[in-house]
Structure formats: structure tokens, C-alpha cells
Model the fold of this input.
Amino acid sequence: MAEISYDRGAVQKSLRQKIRRAAARAIAKEDVWSDFDKTLQAERVVRHMYHPNSQRFFKDETIVKIETEPFTHGAMRHCFRMKKLATPPASATNHRFHSYGWSRALNYVAKAYMIGDQIDSSDSGVEAVLSDVLLQYEAMKWAEEFNRLDPPKKIDFLRAYALQFVDREGQPMFAVERFIDGRDSYGRGFLKHNTNSGFVDEEQRRKTPQVFSAHSFYASNGTRLVADVQGVGDLYTDPQVLSIDFRFGDGDLGPRGMALFFKSFKHSDLADGLGIPIFPLSRNEKRTQLNYDDDDSTISSVLEEEKKCRFEKLDDNRAT
Done:
């Protein structure tokens, strides 16, 4: 695969600008969780944040309010709505965004492993939460590798960390990340693009998330595949990494999960443009795999000018 220059400083500057604009919008925007009970008791928590450079967890303390009942749940975890006051960094010069009380506290999703109707606060439960945080950083690593290829649409994953409720019995631990609100440029909200067991979304037919999953496999020399790609636009959350040695928890289906993904994956012009080879399938698998009909894709009118760009043409996502 050809080496492509990558200006890390420019990408970081662009991300900082996006964060500032998002913060300004957040100040002006009505809280989508306006029904959150702000009379809930505030609780002291210890935050465990992972630093990939040192490969260590660092701790600090903060204060949160969290609901007692989950608002949704998956196969293994329950999800709770949580608010956390924004703490300005030491380098901050403008504290306006951080000066509000609970009325402007940031929205988070806190995810806990359960045993029956109780949060699993055992050593294995704590280890599972910390593993989820590491898994998210593993996905971020492969997202950065994908962005190095300069695809038409850059991707990113939400930053995750662990919160330990040290004043509760058993000191239970939650995996925490920001709540994603909003819609993409086509007016679509939260979407699940693929899963760890071979599902690939056929309705929206987005190319970027599927090609990213395929790229993670080839970039890791077949040792990893980032699946369960979901989120708003190309800001993703809660992935599952598949590995050849089953190191990423119960959701890591290993080589079988990788094979199921490629059985459903449709090789596209975007994959060709980024130098991703065609995955060899058996004759029976080829019979079940449909090809993308690029003529059936439509583009929002706001992208008409951008159609002149060769790479933009590679990711003409279906508009609904």
C-alpha cells in the first residue's frame, strides 16, 4: 500500500476547531436531556483515564449525577444517563463554557455490566470495564491509520474512560463516554453500520464505515478487525475489535467474526481507491454477495461542487 503524507498537526488543529464550535453550539442549544432529574444527589467518583503513549491508566476525581434506572440495555450491559460538570483544563483561557452549573452539565452514557439486576462490582466486572476502555483506544488507533490514507471522509471514535463510584458499596465501575446527539449531513441520526457477527447495513449502504472495518483487517496484517461500527455521521462509539487470539472480551468472535464480516462486505470503488484488495471468497459465498449498484446512489445537492474531487466521488453515500 502506497505511503501517503499525513499532517498530524493540521488534523489536530482541525479537530480543536470543531470542538470549539461544538462547545459554542452546546451553550446555545437546548439540553436534549432537559427531563433529567437535577435533584439527584451528586456523587464523588474516581475517573480512570488511559494514556496510550505511556500505556497506563491515570486517576483523578470529579462529581457526577447519574440516574438509578437504565434507559436502555444491550446483551451484556445496562446504560444509564449521567451528567458531569465540565472541568476546565489548566491551559484554558476562556472559562465561559465551564462556568455553568448542573443546568449546563454535559451528557454522558455510563455503561455497567450486570449480574441479575445488580451492577457487577466483582474483580472480573472491573476488569471487563477497563478492557472496554482499552478496546475503544484500539479502535481509535486503527481509525487514525485509516485517516492517514486521506479518505474522502475522516472518522473518529469517542474517547472513553472508566468511572468508579468510590462511596457506593462495592465501588462499582462504569465505562463512560459522551452522549452523541444530532444528525449527519443527510439528516440521519444514530446508525449501526455493522456488527461483530457479520451484519452489514443494507438500507443506508454507507461505504466509509464498511471500508474502515476492512482496512483495519489489512492494516493489522489480519490480526484485528474493528466491527460494531455505529454512531452519528462518522463519529463512532462502542465498537468491538475482533482479534486472532480473542483478547477483546466476550464480544471478540475472533477469525470467525472476521470471516462473517467479509462474507457480507461489498467491495466498492472506495476500497479500490484506498488500495484495499478484494477478499477471496468461495464460490458459494460469491453467490450470496450482492454488488453495490453505484448508479443507484444519490448525493445531496450541497455536494455537487465537491463532485469534482476524485475522492469525493468514491464515497457517494445514499441520501434519505
